[in-house]
Design goal:
It is a single chain. The chain is 44% helix and 18% strand. The strands form three sheets. The protein has a six-stranded parallel sheet, sandwiched between helices. Helix 4 crosses helix 12, helix 7 runs parallel beside helix 8 and helix 9 crosses helix 10. The longest helix is centred in the last third of the chain and has 21 residues.
Amino acid sequence: LSDDLRTRVLAAADDLGYVGPDPAARALARGSTGAVGILLMDSLTEAFSDWVATTFLASVADHLSSSGLALTLLTPGGTHEIVPARDVAMDGVLVYVCGPESQDVTWLKRRRLPMVGIDQDPLAGVAHVNVDDRTGARAAAQHLLDLGHRRIAILTIGSDDPQAIAPGAAVEPYGHAGEQRMLGWTDALDTAGVTPTIALAPFRPPDAAYDSARQLLQLKDRPTAVLCFSDVYASQVVRAARDLGLDVPSDLSVVGYDDSPLATQLQPQLTTVRQDIQGKAHAAVGLLTAVLKARHDGTEEPADHLLLPVELVVRATTGPPPRSKARAKAS
């Protein structure tokens, strides 16, 4: 069109309120929706109440935006008529903390969508980004052993009801992170000949972790230190200790995981394992865009398994066990 005619056409379109091509028709013509889905394990209410999940989601959205892509939230399940993982149009999908047996993951695989998994057991032929949870948990347990602790408990995710389990009993932690952290803790403890007391609690509500912590701290041979699945769990251990008249860290050492803002808001500030949430989001988006490009170009899709490093951050909730302090004072 000539510049004059083009200007007249656009002016007429503006007068008529035309907003552009129909998105569905444009997606068919281009073979692309311009949107990437993210499948969550939990409801949005639960996801948005968790600092780790919200930070990850915000970082993913930011990185996608810089690539010209939109983010579509996919909740698990759905009605028989509408199943987001099956029915929502998208170019690719990030699968965040979802088990491989999930029906939603099954639908995504059947659709042959470009996919990247995050914080979960690897799927064959699918790129993944995980945190080196095992190494981080091992470092946390070794820190307590180096301080002299031998009566060590673990408070981790699992079970529908708060419960403490006798030392040596078999447990099944929930999810990839729970399994890897349990392996890391027991790597160090087994080597030192320490059999931990293990307590389980569901992630919601937070009081469930508090109830499990109280059970732990009221045992006849109560632990002198507790390794926790997350900073949220650790905060509930600190709360339970104070309610029972115990001082942290003089009577009880506590170690969290994640290094969320909660870790520095607690008094005393929490010893924890730091993971780079924003770095994890950046890596996941980078992998997915590489998979999308390979699919577009007809080249081999990357199936990389990235394992991101973690770091033990020692603050004020850990110290020597009470007996060691008494002996040091007497000497």
